[in-house]
Amino acid sequence: MAITTSALIMLLIAMARHVLDREPFVGLGLALDASAIKSLLIGAASWLVPSAVGLVLCLGFSLVDIQVLAEWSEIITFLPLLLLLVFLLEALPEELAFADTCRPIWRAYFRRGWP
């Protein structure tokens, strides 16, 4: 299902770029260079830091209780599969769908400065 979702999103984005924008798919600028890796790390940290703070607060105030119900070897074995599925189901389609529409708007907004 994850591969099908990513493939359909990529097809949809390619068709929209061709039919609506009349631009090639390559024009999205999805290169794997130093700036892309830096953006990836900033994005990961902007998710990880608040979620870690929230988890620590919830555990500290006894709002949640986490129990391990499987063997650690089983959990570690399925972790790469989980990362791959999250990437294919959420991260890649979202990045492709919003790369050309949202980034120019945010860049223009932040270049102007805060209102």
What this model shows, in words?
This protein is mainly α. It has one domain. It has helices spanning 2-21, 34-60, 72-112. Helix 1 (2-21) packs parallel to helix 3 (72-112).
Separation of the first and last Cα atoms: 43 Å
- The chain-level mean pLDDT equals 80
> Number of helical runs?
3
Number of DSSP-assigned strands: 0
Q: Which oligomerization state do the chains in this entry correspond to? A: single chain
Q: Describe the biggest sheet?
A: none
* Integer count of domains: 1
| Strand content bin | under 5%
Structural class designation: mainly alpha
- The Rg value, from CA coordinates, equals 19 Å
> Into which percent range does the helicity of residues fall?
over 70%
Question: What tags apply to this protein structure?
Answer:
115 residues, 3 helices
Topology:
Elements: H1 2-21, H2 34-60, H3 72-112
Helix pairs in contact: 1-3
Would you kindly provide a brief summary of this structure?
The chain contains 3 helices and no strands. With 115 residues, the chain is mainly α. It has one domain.
